[in-house]
Amino acid sequence: MTEYYIPTQESETELVEKRSRFIGHVWRVESEEEARARIDEMKKRYYDARHNCWCYRLRGGTERYSDDGEPQGTAGQPMLNVFQREQVENVACVVTRYFGGILLGAGGLVRAYTQSAKNALDAAGISVVRRWIQVGVPCGYHLFEPLKKRVSAFDGVLGEVEYGEQVRIHALLPEGRAEEFRAHVLDLSAGTVTPEQEGEAFQDVPWKEAVVN
């Protein structure tokens, strides 16, 4: 089963460390050209900053980074490490630094650039891209809440809910768990509820919600 993780949305965050301002940006990108365009955009926007450090990571294995004048190994690589740890791909990140007059040292720079990249990723959120099975689950109201919980338990995503004499829950289930979910619902309902497959989709769905620091 093919699945991978990408930023949910673009983001901008700011961190102040000993009077230096670190402005972090994250974007979803599909190519090196798009990543480079974002980097150039930040260099023009923050033309008066001391440093515009960057990294990007693309599906397929392409990874690039730059310390942009900071001591080697203190900016671009630590930023890239954030996305490697979270297994996020198709992502570009720029951290802009306005120097505050106080030297941070190599360790301080690594921590600041790492935290800036992490804050920007947290603010963007993470989505998982995979093949989903679209299901409809008609049930009585007494099973509505238990079935909602089962969708989450099977790594599914709850969609639209139709209310009538019965409830019809629409959900996305990972293709590898859809049949297991169907069997579980049949067991839970003593055979009275059968999830119905409505289609398939290969798409991104939010996995980790965006967090504002």
Describe this protein with a few key phrases.
alpha+beta; 213 residues; single chain; 38% strand; 5-stranded antiparallel beta sheet
The dominant shape is: elongated
Q: Roughly what is the average pLDDT, rounded to an integer?
A: 93
The first-to-last residue Cα distance is 34 Å
Helix proportion of residues, in percent? 25-40%
Q: Strand tally, please? A: 10
What order do the helices and strands follow?
Answer: EEEHEEHEHEHEEHE
Query: How much β-strand is present in the residues?
Result: 35-45%
As residue ranges, the low-confidence spans are none
The chain-level structural class is alpha+beta
How large, in whole angstroms, is the Cα Rg?
A: 22 Å
Biggest sheet record: 5 strands, antiparallel
- Total DSSP helices: 5
Description:
The chain has 213 residues and is an alpha+beta fold. 31% of the residues lie in helices and 38% in strands. The chain contains 5 helices and 10 strands, in the order βββαββαβαβαββαβ. It has helices at residues 32-45, 76-86, 105-124, 144-153, 178-188; strands spanning 3-7, 11-17, 20-28, 51-57, 63-66, 91-98, 126-139, 157-163, 167-174, 196-208. The strands form 2 sheets. Strands 1, 7, 8, 9 and 10 form a 5-stranded antiparallel β-sheet that branches. A 5-stranded antiparallel β-sheet has the order 2-3-6-4-5, sandwiched between helices. Helix 2 (76-86) crosses helix 3. It is elongated. The protein starts with a strand and ends in a 5-residue tail after the last strand. The model has no long low-confidence stretch (mean pLDDT 93).
